[in-house]
């Protein structure tokens, strides 16, 4: 089952949760369809979070028990195209997409994680492109996205050997962007929600579009639209007021 909820604080954050505890949040054919529907329903969100239910698995990959019924090249290719399309849609979502890695991300789960713009991980999780243990390779766009993050040589080493990385090492090489303590991972003010809410309240979607590749003129036009917006002038007014009326130093005269 895939759940989609919008945050209760009105910041425009949509949270997509893969909730299949019996399969460690593995992805079945039905799950792929539900993910497509959830992405459709999230249209208009200022930030989209994808996570797994519980605290053991983000996504443990494809549901091997179900997918083992695919025995022809045509069926295997159709499955790969279907889930690659889902990952492509996550990557192309207009607003920032955050993978809240609440648990381990193995195989296809790692591919889902790298389809997001930002990966926030609990400090006790592992991530591995370990499809080689099944004598196959990443097929959902993960190999290419991994190479874009860590370089071709390191991507080949990781995916070619199936090495599992601790969260801290994944952060060191740029595969994970932020590692948070398990104890505060789900907290509203220090966990992944804080990251998502901060992105949703700012023009991060426009920044994502420019980073994705636009002309210099388009980038400048985006800036100019933001410059004349009410949100900019309200923020500028707050800054100018603080500058004109600085707070006195602690213990100083008023």
UniProtKB/TrEMBL annotation:
The keyword Lipid metabolism applies. GO terms for biological process: fatty acid beta-oxidation. The keyword Lipid metabolism applies. It comes from the Bacteria. Keywords: Fatty acid metabolism, Lipid metabolism. InterPro entries: ClpP/crotonase-like_dom_sf, Enoyl-CoA_hyd/isom_CS, Enoyl-CoA_hydra/iso. One of its GO terms (molecular function) is enoyl-CoA hydratase activity. SUPFAM superfamilies: ClpP/crotonase. Belongs to the enoyl-CoA hydratase/isomerase family. Could possibly oxidize fatty acids using specific components. This is Enoyl-CoA hydratase.
